[in-house]
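Extended Data, panel c. Modelled sequence:
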Amino acid sequence: MTENDLPRHVIRPLTESDGSGYLIEFPEFPGCMADGETPEEAITEGRDALLSYKRSLKELSSGS
């Protein structure tokens, strides 16, 4: 999978006071974000975060 497989997202560098590395956010999925030491790692972590986010929404909507 590549970055192009993800829905609209923003990757930005974190400041040193924020822990450095990179943050990925998904504007269409409020609160869904992840970080990593490199942009590639942020994408990998973001993909996992997005899957968990969607799974949680599905569980909540089904009443589980």
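The mean pLDDT is 93. This feature is highlighted in the accompanying rendering.
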